[in-house]
């Protein structure tokens, strides 16, 4: 039964069983991938490759080669980790789906990247609101081969620890929730406009490094070529107050100079967090849900 069903997003009995059992971190059950799953990977990879060559940053393209990603087969995470570990110490860690925000960031702090094992169905190759293995492995993980980018992810994880420490020191419950919600919203916006949808300068013009763009056939070109997209140098005070929507092409994107530059920006984010500059960011998207909030509140216990 499990083998016939495969590992299709929203249609996987194996993943549903693991969630029901409360298993967040799992092993990748490679034998459960169906031929339809493998065909979805082949189609996604083959149509993205020309767009990566044209629009992706050079370090991403090098990462694809360093990881030996196979255009014809869904990768085994054990194979990826054998090649990735010696480069930056990162590993792709299989998960059963959504994990609370603090746990996600704390994984980054420990150089583990929570990785979905399911793959989108054939009828949803263009867009799926939740991550799948193509987004996580083909979109995110090649960037983890770059030392400066990997260090930036660790820095994001350290920011989450700082947020939890700040929350633990606030005695009034209402004030604690207000300030932590504001900090979490600022962090989510910063992560979205950099790690997920970031652009970077290059000698050949703007290039993509954000995984949300790198895994989207339509939006990667739109981000670089569409005349109606607003593209600005990343200003932290703007980004932390800028809402976003996940169900449409992004009309506003931000540009960094390099991965070293990105690291300094995340460093600034934590300094602002400690000084109180993130305590009252603009309301709006993304909303902070209770499960994510509680994950931070319990993060230092």
What is this entry, summarized?
The protein is α/β, with parallel strands linked by helices and 301 residues long. The chain contains 14 helices and 6 strands.
Low-confidence stretches: none
How far from one another are the termini? Answer: 41 Å
Q: Tally of extended strands?
A: 6
Number of helical segments? Answer: 14
CATH architecture: Orthogonal Bundle
Reading off the top of the CATH hierarchy, the class is best stated as Mainly Alpha
**Range of strand content:** 5-15%
Mean pLDDT: 94
List keywords for this structure.
14 helices; 6 strands; globular; 301 residues; Phenylalanine Hydroxylase; 4-stranded mixed beta sheet; alpha/beta
Describe the structure.
This protein has 14 helices and 6 strands. The protein is of the alpha/beta class and 301 residues long. It has a single domain, classed as Orthogonal Bundle (Phenylalanine Hydroxylase), CATH 1.10.800. It has a 4-stranded mixed β-sheet. Strands 1-2 form a two-stranded parallel sheet. Helix 3 runs parallel beside helix 11 and helix 8 packs parallel to helix 13.
SSE diagram, text form:
Layout: H1 2-5, H2 13-20, H3 35-55, H4 58-66, H5 77-88, E1 91-95, H6 101-109, E2 112-116, H7 133-140, H8 147-168, H9 173-196, E3 199-200, E4 207-208, H10 211-214, H11 217-225, E5 230-233, H12 236-239, E6 252-256, H13 259-275, H14 290-297
Parallel strand pairs: 1-2, 3-6, 5-6
Antiparallel strand pairs: 3-4
Helix pairs in contact: 3-11, 6-8, 8-9, 8-13, 9-13
């Amino acid at each position: 039964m499990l083998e016939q069903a495969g590992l299709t997003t929203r249609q996987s009995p194996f993943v549903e069983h693991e969630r029901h059992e409360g298993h967040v971190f799992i092993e990748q059950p490679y034998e459960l991938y169906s031929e339809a799953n493998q065909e979805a990977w082949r189609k996604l990879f083959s149509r993205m490759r020309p767009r990566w060559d044209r629009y992706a940053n050079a370090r991403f393209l090098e990462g694809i080669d360093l990881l030996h990603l196979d255009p014809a087969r869904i990768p085994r995470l054990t194979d990826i980790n054998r090649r990735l570990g010696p480069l930056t110490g990162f590993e792709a860690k299989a998960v059963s789906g959504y994990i609370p925000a603090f746990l996600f960031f704390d994984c980054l702090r420990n150089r583990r990247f929570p990785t979905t094992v399911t793959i989108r169905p054939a009828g949803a190759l263009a867009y799926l609101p939740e991550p799948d293995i193509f987004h996580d492995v083909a979109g995110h993980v090649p960037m983890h081969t770059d030392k400066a980018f990997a260090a930036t992810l660790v820095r994001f994880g350290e920011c989450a620890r700082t947020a939890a420490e700040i929350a633990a020191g606030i005695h009034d419950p209402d004030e604690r929730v207000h300030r932590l919600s504001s900090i979490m919203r600022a962090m989510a916006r910063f992560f979205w406009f950099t790690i997920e949808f970031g652009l970077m300068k290059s000698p050949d013009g703007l290039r993509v490094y954000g995984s949300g763009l790198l895994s989207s056939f339509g939006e990667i070109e739109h981000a670089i070529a569409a005349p109606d997209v607003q593209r600005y140098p990343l200003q932290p005070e703007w980004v932390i107050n800028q809402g976003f929507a996940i169900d449409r092409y992004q009309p506003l994107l931000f540009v960094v100079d390099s991965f070293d530059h990105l690291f300094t920006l995340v460093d600034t984010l934590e300094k602002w967090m400690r000084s109180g500059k993130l305590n009252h960011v603009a309301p709006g998207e993304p909303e902070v849900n209770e499960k994510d909030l509680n994950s931070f509140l319990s993060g230092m216990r």
